[in-house]
Automatic annotation (TrEMBL):
The keyword Membrane applies. Belongs to the KRTCAP2 family. It is found in: Membrane. This is Dolichyl-diphosphooligosaccharide--protein glycosyltransferase subunit KCP2. One of its GO terms (cellular component) is membrane. The chain crosses the membrane at residues 6-28, 40-60, 80-111. InterPro entries: KRTCAP2. The keyword Membrane applies. It comes from the Eukaryota. Keywords: Membrane, Transmembrane, Transmembrane helix. It is a multi-pass membrane protein.
Amino acid sequence: MLNFVSAVNSATSFVLSSILTLLIFSGMQMYKPILIKSPITIIFGGYLGSLMFMFIVTAVGNLEATLFGKNFQLKLPEIILSMAISLIAAGMVHRICFTTCLIFSLITIYYMNKLSQKTYVAAVPAAAPVKSRRHK
């Protein structure tokens, strides 16, 4: 069996993430009347906002990796800006979408950080005990 799944480079990932961000935003605006019909769809609107947050963070991170090199990392201002954009988009649908988007986005960034630490941080070997030459 062949496995065709492979990672794309940062520039391609930036373009894909940007397109998905725009699709989610436009879908939330087009289907706003459906998203505000019941409490479960309002919560789903917040979840869509958190997906948009994830794609914005991915797009910004890949843009910075393309411009500044692979070792460049996202900092807190980029995360806050991405969060603000997604919260505004969710708030345009419904007030509760804003709140659920915030909750889902915090969970999302926690797991994205955990996955990033697991993937990119090299384990530091423990220091071997040093034997002293002094005899007692």
